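pinned: reference chain
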Amino acid sequence: MEKFYAKLQDILEVETLSDSDILEDFPDWDSLSIITLITFLDKEYQVNLYTNEIKAAKTIKDLCCLIESKRK
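pinned: its structure tokens
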């Protein structure tokens, strides 16, 4: 999941991320960011997520758990 964290840092334009960080607190967390993330996850991990699933994730950890659940 290192690539995921690196991509998310790039999308959110931050240097570090913590599992407890709240996604809505990032100024760059918007619909374009979500679409970029969906595309990345599909290409990199073959995980198909929908916008509503990602929006339901409140924290970075929630997002990671969602991705892991779809990878199985």
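why pinned: Helices lie at 2-12, 31-45, 51-56, 60-71. The CA atoms of residues 12 and 29 lie 6 Å apart.
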